Fold this protein.
Amino acid sequence: MAINISIIIFLIGLYGLVFKKNLIKKVMGLSILNSGIVLFFVSIGYKKDATAPIMQEGITKVADPLPQALMLTTIVIGICVTAFALSLIVKIYERYKTLNVQQLIKEEDE
Amino acid sequence: MDETNIVKTVTRKIFPVLVLFGFYLVSYGHLSPGGGFQGGVVLGSALILLCLSQGIAETEKRFRYPTLNMIKSTGALIFLGIGFLGIVLGLNFLTDFLPTGEIGSIPSAGSILLLNLAIGMKVGTGTFLIIHTLMKFIPGDKNGNQY
Amino acid sequence: MSNLPILIIVIPLCAAFVISIVDLTRVKKFSPCLSLASISISLGLIGCLGPRIFAGEQISYALGGWQIPLGITLLVDGLSYFFSLIATLLMILSIIFSINKEGMHHFFLLLLYVGMIGVIYTRDLFNMYVFYEILAISSYILVVSGTRGSLKASLKYLFLGSIASASFLLGIGILYGQTGTLNLDLIAFRIPEILQDNPLTIGLVASLFLFAFGIKCGAFPLHTWVPDAHSLAPTAVSVLLSGVVLKIGIYVLIRVFWTFPYLGIEKIIMWLGIFSLMFGALMALAQDDIKRLLAYSSISQIGCILIGIGIGSESGLKGSLFHILNHAVMKGCLFFCAGLIIFSTQKRKISELKGFGKHNPLLSFLFILAALSIIGIPPFNGFVSKWIICQGAVESGNIFPGIMIILASIIAVAYYGRIIQLFLSPGEPFQESPDIGYLQYIAPCVLSISCVLLGIFPFLGINLVEHAVKMFY
């Protein structure tokens, strides 16, 4: 079930990244895309009736810790890409005074 | 940014508590949910909170850009240095060379504690520097107020 | 001495962070020397590994002492060694070329190098994703230069690269869910049983990987970031992007699709190659900006390499790998020369460069040499690798790719020939140009001498390629 929801979130993010005309909305789509992937990975490590993967006495059934560790790295990478995209957008706005993709393409053709 | 006096005072008082919470998350990374990145982001958020409420000019007087940049690079170099210590001691890169103590106490799980501290240092200053750079270059109006 | 694979990656990383500290102090001007020193140390370490690799040994290294299946391993075999050699040599020349840039530029160049070597050496899929992201983010940052339009080019590259990375990660996730491990060797071991149970999942993973690495290496329908990013980046960065970063996408394609073989994916790769070949050649005919023409020519050559891989036979793979080496050398020389031409005349359009041969004979000579090699004229190296690919095509019974490669070379005569003709014809003299220092000439000279050497003595290159191909056949 969580896997299906994560694929839907991934597709919503992809729609936002591809079809929206405002640059900030595209970056938001990128962020939603990353969240979808994180949810997908974490839900792969799901086991029924398992607890958090921290070692204490008397705990035998733990959820898979590997996807959770991988997703920490993925979230960091997502933050870096979003931060760089936003700083590029700040510079583009300063230069071209618009955030609309159609107008930016029209500027290029002139 | 012109925030009210209530916001300015309360954030100034909350800031040390946030930094303490960040250090707690970083150092208990191997015993409970937390670790280098998570604690580092909380540390960074504490600085960002200060930045948002007091304004970038005030915050910059106390937490200067060159110092934070130096801390950031030092964090990365400490991480790589711990990895090199593994090579110097004859094992592979980044091997656990400290003994694992008893489960549940802080100095256990080998060199993970030191690595977490290094990462916490780097991530905390790093996230604040991202917001600092973005905030400094957003054009404002003549009075110095930012949009 | 057995720590060599990780030292090749970590020493430039340490140097990068030391440069970011040094950049804040008063000894700022030593940063470029530091980066050159660290890459030279890496080149020396790769040289030390050389004799052992050529003797047939495969060097494996477990990070942190954790063995498979718990840990991340690095593996240096013939194929990895070949790619890391190309990456290091181009990197040294790029750093020498951009020795006057500021410290942070060198910081990102070193991070780019770390990402490249990390992807090439690692055996763990998620580690490959992390290093690929380091490579990609550094290249997004490096594309930004003073040229008009480079901000938009970098943003376009960022969006497409992020879609590619997200698809790659999704594929890794599905694969991990099915096999339970992330190590390439263990996955290759467990794939055949999964292929019998549900082949559709493996098909989905294969198409996600093909989509992701099609974007990254600039194959035909997914190439749209290549012309902007390669033409508007600073010159040394264009060389690295065209010469190495596109090829790392092809390296991952070879690794992933040879470790777990799928039936029929080679046909798709071959057809993507044929489309990229013709598309790149035809679009290059219509270009006026010199660097944009070179970028479309890159797409065309990547198509040629994909044809060689898609053929699937030993000659095809050998020709592709040799063409990867040749294209890195030839396109590197062309981009360095183009950068120096733009620097000395301040003109980017080809139509305004009439008579450049008289203005700067050495530069025109190097450019013409590299252009003749990339067309595929016999005494140079482009001819040898294209010949081996065509031979592989004919051997496997499929003559159509061979004809396409010859057709694309004929079209290349048209668009490179136009530049050569404009250089050699007399025109009005150019205005006084800024002086090009001796240091900037080192890179194109070295690369064009290698073009000639590899063409006259092809066994130098084929020797390297033999060791790379040996493990597959």
Remarks:
- The domain at 2-49+62-109 of chain A is CATH 1.10.287.3510 (Helix Hairpins).
- The interface with chain B takes residues 52, 54-56, 72, 75-76, 79, 83, 86-87, 90, 94 of chain A (CB under 8 Å).
- The longest helix of chain A spans residues 65-96.
- Chain A is about 75% helix and 0% strand.
